[in-house]
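Help needed: design a sequence for this.
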């Protein structure tokens, strides 16, 4: 059993992890990257054409569009982080507080101040980690969040035991 304090920062970290790794979010970011760069190029070229400086507008537009293209991943992550932090403050990402996570023959369970949830072994989709958290995914964008600050060894042991019981990950 793992017992820990789930913080707003943990909930933000989970959302940023999903933002960086979810294929649909990555695709959306690339669409915005291309679209915003082309929009800047077109707008500056059009404005320059209106004053008779077409070539200058195209060159300046291309340079600014290239800068935007290069900076876009950081801009996109910054926007995501601000949005997640705002949602966390309003309670839209979940409720921080004490959390207890355990498993038994039926699956994985958690208890928080808002109640208890359970998922059977077949309901676990995958287990992923970053440097600060582990995530037991129970859907495409839903996971139990485990902060590694509670100790690398207990988290590793818990995840190893969970992996042994997940039929779809054992093969």
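Sure. Designed sequence:
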């Amino acid at each position: 059993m793992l017992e820990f304090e789930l913080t707003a920062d943990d909930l933000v970290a989970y959302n940023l992890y999903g933002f960086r790794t979810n294929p649909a979010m990555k695709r959306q970011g690339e669409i915005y990257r291309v679209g915003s760069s082309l929009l800047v190029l077109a707008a500056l070229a059009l404005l320059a054409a209106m004053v008779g400086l077409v070539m200058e507008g195209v060159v300046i537009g291309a340079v600014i569009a290239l800068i935007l293209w290069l900076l876009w991943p950081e801009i996109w992550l910054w926007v995501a982080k601000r949005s997640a932090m705002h949602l966390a403050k309003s309670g839209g990402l979940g409720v921080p507080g004490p959390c207890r996570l355990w498993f038994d023959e039926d699956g994985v369970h958690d208890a928080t101040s808002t109640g208890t949830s359970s998922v059977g072994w077949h309901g676990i989709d995958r287990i992923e980690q970053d440097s600060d958290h582990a995530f037991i995914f129970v859907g495409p964008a839903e996971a139990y969040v485990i902060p590694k600050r509670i100790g690398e060894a207990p988290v590793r042991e818990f995840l190893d035991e969970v992996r042994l019981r997940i039929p779809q990950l054992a093969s």
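The longest strand covers residues 97-104.
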